[in-house]
Amino acid sequence: MLRAMDSAVAGLRAHQNKLDVIGNNIANVNTFGFKSQAYSFKDAMYQTSRTSSGGKTDTNGNGIIGGANPAQYGYGSLTGSIATDFTSSTPTYVGGFNAAINGSGFFITSSSNKKVVLDPADIRATTAVLKKSNFAYTRVGQFSVDANGYIVDANHNFVYGFQPDSLTEPTKYGDEGKDLVPLRAPELKADGTVDLTPPSFANRAAQMKSIEIGEDGIIKGIIDLKTLGPPAQITATSIVLGKVGVASFQNQEGLSKAGNNTFNAGVGDNTGYISATMPGEGSTSTLMAGYLEASNVDLAKEFSDMITTQRGFQANTKIITVSDEVLQDLVNMKR
């Protein structure tokens, strides 16, 4: 078998893989929060037919034999890397209970309801806890309130954040950022009145009349507050459910895509340190209330890459055709 044919077959596979990446990018051109991927090639193994040598000289330093450079045969190309482009895209105003992160960072969500205790003073300990918790990180802040009063995203995952110390006049959240919990509406007491202490997740949640999120990540709502009296009265009261959490990564390119606009940072992933803070706190980005981040796919670039990749694929098929003709000539030498 000719080396050229082996190289061409490897080139076909590599170019097909790049077309797969381009196709996925174009398919998600209108997907909120989608981050495009860039494919690169690398050359494959080599067969050395002659190694390099430095030449020889006599005792007087005069050259006897000149040096020779190596001679190697290559065997095509392989997948080099598939890197995710985390460049922020254009925010699109959609209104309602939605939010986009105005900069870097990710919303923290999970399919399970659990409390996570952090140590903001120890970044190593915080990173270990967040990685073991297997959170799903997303850039898409499409929020809603489910039947149990929980704040959920478009994937029906619980949205995590920091509870206030008071639902009416909060002074701090999540014990100064130490307690990360799924955010929920206040609970109802046995007598039908609203419990204005932070939810314990043990009782039925009160019904929210309206809900909104601010640029500082604070989620506010309106509920009907019932007083037993006498006489019994119902008044519309504004409360604070909490602040959404924003995760930041030392190396966000180390995140793994998990589908449904989410990313994972497993225990062994190359994300480095992780922090979970509140919007606008320190270097953490603020939010854009009512906005969603559009896809960052550049159609002009994708189509130009598709053309060059198609031509590369076509050139490799031509090598296979020529190699086949050479083999046919060899077979036909003996008649």
Rounded to the nearest angstrom, the distance between the terminal CA atoms is: 21 Å
Number of H/I helices: 4
Gyration radius over CA: 30 Å
Question: Could you list the spans in which at least 5 consecutive residues all have pLDDT below 50?
Answer: none
The shape is elongated
On the 0 to 100 scale, the average pLDDT is: 91
Main sheet summary: 12 strands, antiparallel
Percent of residues in β-strands = 25-35%
Descriptive account of the structure:
With 335 residues, the protein is an alpha+beta fold. The chain contains four helices and 27 strands. The protein has helices at residues 3-27, 123-132, 174-177, 299-331; strands at residues 37-43, 46-50, 56-57, 63-65, 71-74, 77-84, 91-93, 98-101, 106-110, 116-117, 136-138, 141-142, 144-145, 151-152, 158-162, 179-182, 187-188, 194-195, 208-213, 218-227, 233-244, 246-249, 256-259, 262-264, 274-277, 287-289, 291-293. The strands form eight sheets. Strands 9, 10, 11, 15, 16, 19, 20, 21, 22, 23, 24 and 25 form a twelve-stranded antiparallel β-sheet that branches. α1 (3-27) runs antiparallel to α4. The mean pLDDT is 91.
Task: Spell out the blueprint of helices and strands.
Elements: H1 3-27, E1 37-43, E2 46-50, E3 56-57, E4 63-65, E5 71-74, E6 77-84, E7 91-93, E8 98-101, E9 106-110, E10 116-117, H2 123-132, E11 136-138, E12 141-142, E13 144-145, E14 151-152, E15 158-162, H3 174-177, E16 179-182, E17 187-188, E18 194-195, E19 208-213, E20 218-227, E21 233-244, E22 246-249, E23 256-259, E24 262-264, E25 274-277, E26 287-289, E27 291-293, H4 299-331
Antiparallel strand pairs: 1-6, 2-5, 3-4, 7-27, 8-12, 8-26, 9-11, 9-15, 9-22, 10-16, 11-24, 13-14, 15-16, 15-21, 17-18, 19-20, 20-21, 22-25, 23-24
Helix pairs in contact: 1-4
